[in-house]
Write a structure and sequence with these properties.
10 strands; eight-stranded antiparallel beta sheet; about 270 residues; about 20% strand; 8 helices; alpha+beta; two-stranded antiparallel sheet; elongated; binds zinc ion
Length: about 270
Amino acid sequence: VPEGHTIHRIARDQGRVLTRRRLDVTSPQGRFAAGAALIDRERLERIEAYGKHLFYGFAGGHVLHVHLGLFGVFGLHKGAGPLDPVGAVRLRMVAGRHDGRPPATVDLRGPTACAVLTPDERMAIVGRLGPDPLRSDADPERFSAAVARTARAIGAVLLDQSVIAGIGNVYRAEILFACRIDPRRSGRDLSGVEVRCVWDTASAMLHKGVKDGRIVTIDGGDVGPAPARRPRRGEATYAYHRDVCVRCGSAIERYELGARTCWSCPVCQS
Ligand SMILES: [Zn+2]
């Protein structure tokens, strides 16, 4: 599942070419035909990312909700007319037939959720989400309060979208390594300073992820000059998919936590 930085980046990139334009909306595959008809030829006003959710606000009041889930993927084609759909395209949005601006086509395949909602239905989804560190309106106190009252392991809590929105398996391992917290420690046993570290680190890492377009948490000072090639999985991170700790040389531990594999250093995160 893409983590929050990917979703915010999609909102940003699609926003540049689709917002404040009237869109032709269809479902080449047919599964979303009724929903597409509700927003076809409507003007898209804004695209909003909240955790792993995307909301497209149309002038008529309809809200398109997309959650990519495990298999969902967007394609964005700029500067050319619509192409023949490849594969099962659930949703296609085309800009450029109603204004003189450059055309753009967005195709969506395989999402977990793709539905047209009312503003109230959007509010119901947002109401179930914890604060998103990538949003300027996020309230860190809501996160701190939720962590302070739970006996669950902090590593499991970080994957709970109702506590903090947008964190996935890579970032949880990296955030807790950076804050030197064992992922198996109970939320309520963390100090205020530790909880604040988790929030601030999550915010910094996710913002960097939006900028970089991928997850690189490792600091060049720990591994020497960055290789010219793109780092492989387990090279751009401190704990995630590592065998040996970059900082202290200990064997990285690996175990199930929150139904996903978790990695941590027994020495750096004790
Ligand atoms: Zn270590």
